[in-house]
Design goal:
Number of strands: 10
Bound molecules: octanoyl-coenzyme A
Radius of gyration: 19 Å
Shape: globular
CATH superfamily of the largest domain: 2-enoyl-CoA Hydratase, Chain A, domain 1
CATH class of the largest domain: Alpha Beta
Strand order of the largest sheet: 1-2-3-5-7-10
Distance between the termini: 29 Å
């Protein structure tokens, strides 16, 4: 049991629902720590292959960091809060060895959009609205938004979103490449689970290496191509590689679950 979270595990897919609906699922310290622990608990658990993160209710994914919690912070406390958040959650998700899908079921604002952007894939419901309203509060995005938003939508659009603090609708987020798909709210989880099931049929080891290689291309001072070469090599001589190639030659579906040692 984790405070402010609901967990549901089915067929290798763990769905984590952030459950503070009265506060529009705002991320307070306790919730960030709980998410961090829930992810740690499954990062090396072969029974979980894909994680879906969503928000409770029909209104919000996450309406941001909990403003009430940091309203009276000093410079040092503000910096510490951001630093701890990066370490405990946002970087952890980006580097998580299993795919993490954000099911954006409503408002994803500030830290909420930053949470969605740290996930590997984003799927939004038609009613979703996303934005980085931090400058309207006198702060800047502090959970990775200044870095991940330009990666996803380009520098010009990122500046526009950050400077105006405005929200964009799901359709525009799709157009900008900020989310991969937009679906009716009632089919959001089903769509994410369908995608997760497809992913779960593939080699977990290869997926872990792919996450590392893609991330390496965005890391400062790291040669992404070299990371890809190393990751590609790491896949060889593994039971999953043996199973994948054998299955192809035997004209059957690979069974990676039983290929694991
Ligand atoms: N923090 C705390 N409480 C919140 C938050 C939030 N981010 N968002 C909503 N709530 C609470 C409201 O205070 C209200 O609670 P109560 O009834 O006790 O007053 C409840 O949720 C419902 O909200 P509203 O009544 O405002 O609902 P509306 O439908 O009228 O409006 C909105 C919905 C438009 C989403 C509105 O709630 C809103 O603008 N929320 C704030 C959005 C925002 O500014 N988010 C960014 C926060 S700052 C941030 O995320 C910084 C990230 C980086 C931090 C780095 C470390 C510090």
């Amino acid at each position: 049991m984790y405070p402010n979270l609901q967990l549901e595990q089915n067929d290798g897919i763990l769905t984590i629902t952030i459950d503070r609906p009265k506060q529009l699922n705002a991320l307070n310290k306790e919730t960030i720590a709980a998410l961090s622990s829930a992810l740690d608990a499954v990062s090396e658990d072969a029974a979980v292959q894909v994680v879906i993160i969503t928000g409770s209710g029909e209104k919000a994914f996450v309406a941001g960091a909990d403003i009430k919690e940091f309203a009276a912070f000093s410079i040092e406390e503000g910096a510490k809060l951001a630093e701890v958040g990066h370490e405990q959650l946002f970087n952890k998700i980006e580097r998580f060895p299993k795919p993490v899908i954000a099911a954006v079921n409503g408002f994803a604002l500030g830290g909420g959009l930053e949470l969605a952007m740290s996930c590997h894939i984003r799927v939004a419901s038609e009613n979703a609205k996303v934005g980085l309203p931090e400058v309207t509060l006198g702060v800047i995005p502090g959970y990775g938004g200044t870095q991940r938003l330009p990666q996803l939508v380009g520098k010009g659009k990122a500046f526009e979103m950050i400077f105006t603090g405005g929200m964009i609708a799901a359709a525009e987020a799709l157009d900008w490449g900020l989310v991969n798909h937009v679906v009716p709210q009632e089919s959001l989880l089903e769509t994410c689970r369908g995608m997760a099931q497809k992913i779960a049929r593939n080699s977990p080891n290869a997926i872990r290496e792919a996450i590392g290689a893609v991330n390496a291309g965005f890391a400062t001072g790291v040669d992404g191509y070299q990371a890809e070469i190393a990751g590609f090599g790491n896949c060889f001589a593994t039971p999953e590689f043996e199973e994948g190639t054998q299955a192809f030659m035997e004209k059957r579906r690979p069974d990676f679950k039983n290929a694991k040692q």
